[in-house]
Specification:
The complex is a heterotrimer. Chain A is mainly α. Chain A has 15 helices and four strands. In chain A, about 45% of the residues are buried. Chain B contains four helices and nine strands, in the order ααβββααββββββ. The relative contact order of chain B is 0.16. Classes of the chains: A mainly alpha, B alpha+beta, C mainly alpha.
């Protein structure tokens, strides 16, 4: 279809003025992709799909959503009422909202796997450091967008989640109060907070699109990594396949399979037992009563555990900041010349343990603290940092396996 | 020859995938566009109930239906007599010009004159058919109450302040007005002796 | 072991770890199972009757208008019944109790919560509501007065007095009271997410279609990749 479209006069007219044909060929249809990419390489395309769905559903939801904390009958608010109106009265409103709310969780799930793949196969290493760094920026913006978005329904978890996080920033020395007021537009989370969070929630995905474009541009400049983590001659047809139809069809299948899981959750289990939409968020925000059990949504819980693992509040905040900041320098901590964990026995063990570690951190952050869990969380926090620090010394002791010549 | 069959199989799969993809895209558009149509509560508010017995004889009440103003007048017997005798002066005596000014129940000359189900109660859309202003209610005949804002042979009715259209007490437009048609009637019915359901 | 399998097993382990099924939010008691069916018109209508006769004495369901109630095909309510239920209230009014917030505060010490979202808004959902309605008991420690002691309420001391008369009911009434509690739980589960039946019905078609699309794309992918060696 694309080929026949590119033969038309109209396309030729556009092409003379934009060089569209060269762009399409080099970036899409004839872009070379390593032949040996496995199924772990489909999560980028899936993440793009979810991002588009989130933006589109968000635009339509914004046609009905009203960011106002003004109280209405029965202790509800204008914002909460508008969400319920979407759920009850707007045609297909329930579908749009569930797709959007579940989509947030799915986005993180996919991006976490995408990052895990990059870590396992060494996709963050030279010459792809900047791709990784842009990816971390994407993650941070996603976390911001998710945090802002979570306030919008103005339920109990919205309100208390925002209160806890803004207080976190408030604990920063010297500037804390200023930052808190800057975020909240007042002295506690209230109507001005809701308004600015809505504005930022709409802005952040646009930033995301821009950075994703940079992420992909950088990738297409240095080309994809591969499961063996070896450098490939991109012009040798023994190494690569054309992006279209090989990768496009593979991605299309993967996206379709993913959509089945996504839509299954949307249509049959949208709350996901309180993990995707929390039970307490069906209760309107009440600034005089904190819910009995308060925890962030699952995708933020690993960082929440790191925060809670330290007795001194400020240290906890610093540790949480460091746990995200360390991701930026990750490509420079690991000096090994070999990329893929397939040929790095020690790194392989470490990184698999790291994946387990993050899940343990997530579990500890979601569950109400007990003495045991607290210790478990502290050990997991220790390993989180130990993993990165250990990488500094790894090349000295690790015996890597010989790399294959080609694919 | 396998090469041959392979190709037809591949083409078939391409067409099938493309077709299903198009269906998926089309189906996905339904909830998005559907969500932009009036929501259930907006539709529910598309009908309005009103108790006409609350309108004092000779008086006018303006209510809101689908966000638009609606006139409800309680016409006295004397006012009803003033519907006769000026047919020559009306653009559309029998409300036949367009769909919006007539209704199914206007099946007798009498009903075409009173333009109402119950002769006493006139229920019409309160937007001047010229450019949508709300006409002023000037029910008494002659210039005694209204000065020279109304013609000397004024039979009582409405006067649109924007561009000077005149309507009689059945909201039929009077010759010389810029308005092209009588005030529109909307679907309504009596659900009890005195309650009308508009819409 | 390939990364695929590792990730898969990690994901499974993660799910098992985190799926600590929403335990009873109550005083550690496992909730009773409520036998409800939100597609059962008779049960929903019986539940509606209990709701309007008993619950609405104090509680509202502001997101459910009388007009909206008529619009749900699951209920199939006639205009006459809607008129009977609403009394003097307009059709577009929510199901609002006649008890004023001030009177409620005076009698019960707090304003009874709106019940539109009580099922999705409580851990344990419909089972919790059912257990609560049939959970009134005598306090062994005799600290909480009869009618305010509930086995399933967090902290056991509930402001809502035994609405169905569960405490000290005659043995022969047990089945009927349980039925009432289940019916009203079903109704509350329904209004908590009134498009749920439509959603599940539509979901079957969506998933069926996606399955077909996935199969075709899988075959196409295999076909295309045939010539890569």
């Amino acid at each position: 279809m694309l080929e026949s479209m590119m033969k038309t006069k109209l396309f030729a007219w556009v092409d003379r003025r934009t060089g569209a044909e060269a762009i399409i060929k080099s970036q899409l249809t004839e872009y070379p992709a390593p032949k040996n990419l496995n199924w772990m390489w489909v999560f980028g395309a899936i993440a793009m799909t979810v991002l588009v769905l989130q933006i589109v559903t968000g635009i339509f939801l914004a046609m009905y959503y009203k960011p106002s904390a003004m109280e209405t009958l029965g202790g509800f608010s204008v914002a909460f009422d508008s969400v319920e109106r979407i759920m009850r009265d707007v045609n297909f409103g329930w579908l749009l909202r569930y797709t959007h709310a579940v989509g947030a969780s799915m986005f993180f799930l996919v991006v976490y796997i995408h990052m895990g793949r990059g870590m396992y196969y060494g996709s963050y290493k030279e010459p792809r450091e900047l791709i990784w760094i842009m990816g971390v920026v994407i993650l941070l913006i996603m976390q911001g967008a998710a945090f802002f978005g979570y306030l919008l329904p103005w339920g109990q978890m919205s309100f208390w989640g925002a209160t806890v996080i803004t207080n976190l920033f408030g604990a920063i020395p010297v500037l804390g109060d200023l930052i808190g007021q800057l975020l909240m537009g007042g002295f506690s989370v209230g109507d001005p907070t809701l308004n600015r969070f809505f504005s930022l929630h709409y802005l952040f995905p646009l930033l995301l699109v821009a950075i994703v474009a940079g992420h992909i541009h950088a990738l297409h400049t240095v080309h994809s990594n591969n499961p063996d983590g070896i450098d490939l001659d991109q012009s040798d047809p023994n190494n690569v396949v054309m992006f279209h139809p090989y990768v496009t069809m593979k991605d299309a299948f993967a996206v379709s399979l993913f959509m089945m899981l996504y839509m299954y959750i949307v249509f049959f289990n949208p709350q996901m037992g309180g993990y995707f939409i929390e039970v307490d968020n069906y209760v309107p925000a009440n600034n005089l009563q904190t819910p009995a059990h308060i925890a962030p949504v699952w995708y933020l819980t690993p960082w929440y555990t790191i925060l809670r693992s330290f007795e001194v509040k400020l240290v906890g905040i610093a540790a949480m900041g460091a746990s995200l900041a360390i991701l930026f320098v990750f490509p420079f901590l690991d000096r090994s010349k070999v990329r893929s964990a397939r040929y790095r026995p020690m790194y392989r063990g470490m990184v698999i343990l790291f994946f387990i570690d993050v899940i343990v951190l997530g579990y500890c952050g979601h569950t109400a603290t007990t003495e045991t869990l607290k210790v478990v969380g502290q050990i997991a926090t220790f390993y989180y940092f130990a993993f990165f620090i250990g990488l500094l010394f790894l090349p000295k002791i690790e015996k890597t396996k010989p790399l294959p010549e080609g694919v | 020859m396998t090469e041959q069959t392979d190709h037809s199989r591949r083409n078939f799969l391409y067409v099938a995938a493309g077709g299903l993809g198009a269906v998926a895209g089309g189906a996905a558009a339904i909830p998005f566009l559907g969500s932009m149509l009036p929501a259930a509560d907006t539709l529910a508010a598309a009908t309005t109930e009103f108790d006409v017995s609350t309108v004092v004889e000779g008086q006018l009440v303006v209510i809101v239906w689908q966000g638009k103003p609606v006139f409800i007048t309680n016409r006295s017997d004397e006012m009803l007599t003033r519907l006769d005798g000026h047919d020559d002066n009306l653009k559309d005596v029998n409300s036949e010009a367009i769909e919006a000014v007539q209704a199914e129940w206007m099946d007798t000359p009498e009903k075409r004159k009173t333009r109402s189900i119950n002769p006493r109660y006139l229920v019409v859309v309160a937007s001047c058919t010229h450019l949508g202003c709300i006409p002023l209610y000037k029910p008494s005949a002659g210039r005694a109450e209204w000065g020279d804002s109304v013609p000397s042979d004024w039979v009582g009715g409405w006067h649109c302040p924007c561009h000077g259209s005149f309507y009689d007490l059945s909201a039929r437009v009077i010759n010389g007005s810029p308005a092209p048609h009588n005030l529109h009637v909307m679907p309504y019915k009596f659900i009890s002796d005195s309650v009308v359901l508009i819409g | 072991m390939k990364l695929n399998t590792i990730l898969l097993s990690l994901a499974t382990a993660g799910m098992m770890l985190t799926s600590n099924v929403a335990l009873a939010s109550g005083g550690g008691h496992v909730l009773k199972h409520a036998n409800v069916d939100v597609t059962n018109q008779e049960q929903l209508l019986r539940g509606l009757t209990v709701f309007s006769d008993v619950c609405m004495g104090c509680h509202s369901a502001k997101y459910i208008t009388y007009k909206g109630l008529m619009a749900y095909p699951e209920l199939g309510i006639s205009r006459e019944l809607a008129d009977e239920l609403r009394g003097e209230k307009p059709m577009m009014s929510g199901m609002i109790t006649d008890l004023s917030p001030a009177d409620a505060t005076e009698s019960y010490g707090k304003i009874p919560p709106d019940l539109s979202l009580i099922v999705p808004g409580r851990r344990g959902g419909v089972d919790y509501v059912y257990s609560l309605l049939t959970g009134y008991a005598h306090d062994h420690n005799e600290k909480v007065p009869d009618g305010n002691y509930n086995t399933y309420f967090p902290g056991n001391s509930i402001a809502m007095p035994d609405p169905l008369g569960w405490l000290d009911h005659d043995a022969e009434d047990t089945a009927e009271l349980e039925q009432q509690a289940e019916d009203v739980s079903a109704f509350l589960a329904f209004i908590g997410d009134p498009h749920q039946n439509e959603r599940r019905a539509m979901g079957k078609y969506v998933l069926g279609f996606l399955l077909l699309l996935t199969i075709v794309l899988f075959l196409l992918k295999k076909e295309v990749w045939k010539d890569v060696h």
